């Protein structure tokens, strides 16, 4: 069920008409639905429950660590934290966000290939659940930093299972040629090395093979490879207490049909259970996930107002007040986002390229869309909840959009619009 739907010809977020929100909060505006967020998280939580994997169950339970990079607004993190979510972070800044949002640092895992010493220190200080270490030099640095802090760092090694996620090359991360994780063939040696370090405690294994996957077959293939590695590690006396399969499940932008989360988790848990019972006499092994897009992607839209219509010989342009700095995905990946009029008109539609005011030909949001619009009308760029605001920039000294969270018939302003003065507040004139 979509939480963005038409009522009397006007697109609503839950019970609120989007044109009223634009009037109140201005444009461009990111609008999120709390009910959609909740439903998307529940798809994961319910599948865990169905498989008997409650948070601290005898089987090791499950932990869903929402991937903060997909949408890091404090209100979004707060909603998910209250639902029991953990968090997958990639910077010290994201950790501070989680804490500011009331999230539990003991449910935080720290991914990323380039963790700095300060970030490690901060994470140790907050006693995060686990560092997802991506290289041997990183594990040595972490050992040092933990030693200085008088702590032991819990780690899992991110292994690169060399599985083709069959997604856009920019968001495919599990192949040999990607910069992420340690090569599958090197993983055993890396684990031996890590296990011998005094301030490191090996607790898990993880992988993440890519994003916007429609099929779960590559994920299950990666799972099989991870399981194989756990068996080898166990035979060398290195015990693994959790396996983290990453995020990656896709969403519908256009007509894609991603595997339902419940089906994927059902198949994954069935494999894990059969193996765990056979090989480990039912010893506890926690299963973790790092979903981002499938939680928040379809829970948000970007509202934008049509400024000008330019009707040309070969093309018509709808120049809107949002741009590539607000939603970078089309310019960066040629990503397709649905464009819906907020208020439906009876007039004849024309074909438009929807473009922003930024001085780049790459500044487009949608190509060749049939739209019946006039200047001043509002458009909604659909499925913009994930990697929308978090990838926004201030290019062309454009303040980033405001953000609103809708909860039934209430709208909460969860981030104010940036003013130009905010953008140069940290700058000064030399001399
Ligand atoms: N875990 C790790 C280690 C990741 O690198 C990512 C995403 C996730 C989890 C969450 O993946 P998801 O469930 O959202 O697929 N900016 C791109 C997507 C980049 C994904 C980066 N990593 C886009 O707009 O499509």
TrEMBL record:
Binding residues for pyridoxal 5'-phosphate: 248, 290-293, 387
Database matches in InterPro entries: Ala_racemase/Decarboxylase_C, DAP_deCOOHase_LysA, De-COase2_C, De-COase2_N, Orn/DAP/Arg_de-COase, PLP-binding_barrel
Documented EC number(s): 4.1.1.20
Catalytic activity: meso-2,6-diaminopimelate + H(+) = L-lysine + CO2
Positions that bind substrate: 293, 329, 333, 360, 387
Pathway(s) this gene product operates in, as recorded in its UniProt entry: Amino-acid biosynthesis; L-lysine biosynthesis via DAP pathway; L-lysine from DL-2,6-diaminopimelate: step 1/1
Domain Orn/DAP/Arg decarboxylase 2 C-terminal: start-end pairs: 30-385
Cofactor or coenzyme needed: pyridoxal 5'-phosphate
Pfam family, one: Orn_Arg_deC_N
EC supergroup of this enzyme: lyase
Keyword field: Amino-acid biosynthesis, Decarboxylase, Lyase, Lysine biosynthesis, Pyridoxal phosphate
Gene3D superfamilies per the UniProt record, alphabetical: Alanine racemase, Lyase, Ornithine Decarboxylase, Chain A, domain 1
Coiled coil: none
Span of domain Orn/DAP/Arg decarboxylase 2 N-terminal: 62-296
Entry-annotated residues carrying N6-(pyridoxal phosphate)lysine: 69
Family recorded in the similarity comment: Belongs to the Orn/Lys/Arg decarboxylase class-II family. LysA subfamily.
Cited function: Specifically catalyzes the decarboxylation of meso-diaminopimelate (meso-DAP) to L-lysine.
Stored HAMAP family: LysA
Listed NCBIfam families: lysA (TIGR01048)
Subunit structure: Homodimer.
The name this protein goes by in its record: Diaminopimelate decarboxylase
């Amino acid at each position: 069920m979509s939480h963005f739907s038409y009522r009397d010809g006007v697109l609503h977020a839950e019970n609120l008409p989007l044109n009223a929100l634009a009037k109140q909060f201005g444009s461009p505006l990111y609008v999120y639905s709390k009910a959609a967020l909740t439903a998307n998280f529940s798809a994961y939580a319910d599948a865990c429950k169905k498989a008997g994997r409650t948070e601290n169950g005898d089987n090791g339970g499950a932990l869903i660590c929402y991937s903060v990079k997909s949408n890091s607004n404090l209100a979004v993190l707060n909603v998910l934290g209250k639902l029991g979510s953990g968090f997958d972070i990639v910077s010290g800044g994201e950790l501070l966000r989680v804490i500011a949002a009331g999230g539990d640092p003991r449910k935080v895992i720290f991914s990323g290939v380039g963790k700095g010493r300060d970030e490690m220190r901060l994470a140790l200080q907050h006693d995060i659940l686990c560092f997802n270490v991506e290289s041997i030099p990183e594990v040595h640095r972490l050992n040092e930093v933990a030693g200085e802090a008088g702590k032991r760092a819990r780690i899992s090694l991110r292994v690169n299972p060399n599985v083709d996620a069959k997604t856009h090359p920019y968001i495919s991360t599990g192949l040999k040629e990607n910069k992420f994780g340690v090569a599958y063939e090197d993983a055993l040696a890396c684990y031996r090395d890590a296990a011998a370090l005094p301030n490191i405690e090996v607790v898990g294994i993880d992988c993440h093979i890519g994003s916007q996957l429609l099929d779960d077959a590559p994920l299950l293939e990666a799972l099989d490879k991870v399981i194989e590695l756990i068996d080898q590690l166990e035979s060398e006396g290195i015990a693994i207490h959790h396996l983290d399969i990453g995020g990656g499940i896709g969403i519908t932008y256009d007509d894609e049909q991603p595997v339902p989360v419940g089906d994927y988790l059902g198949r994954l848990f069935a494999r894990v259970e059969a193996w765990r019972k056979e090989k480990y006499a039912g010893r506890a092994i926690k299963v973790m996930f790092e979903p981002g897009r499938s939680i928040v992607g379809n829970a948000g839209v970007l509202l934008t107002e049509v400024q000008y219509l330019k009707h040309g010989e070969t093309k018509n342009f709808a120049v809107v007040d949002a741009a590539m700095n607000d939603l970078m995905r089309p310019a960066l990946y040629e990503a397709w986002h649905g464009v819906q009029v907020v208020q439906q008109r009876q007039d004849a539609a024309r074909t438009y390229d929807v473009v922003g005011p930024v001085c780049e030909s790459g500044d487009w949001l949608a190509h060749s869309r049939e739209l019946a619009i006039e200047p001043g009308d509002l458009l909604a760029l659909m499925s913009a909840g994930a990697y929308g605001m978090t990838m926004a920039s201030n290019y062309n000294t454009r303040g980033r959009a405001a953000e609103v969270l809708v909860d039934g018939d209430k709208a909460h302003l969860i981030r104010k619009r940036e003013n130009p003065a905010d953008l140069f507040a940290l700058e000064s004139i030399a001399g």
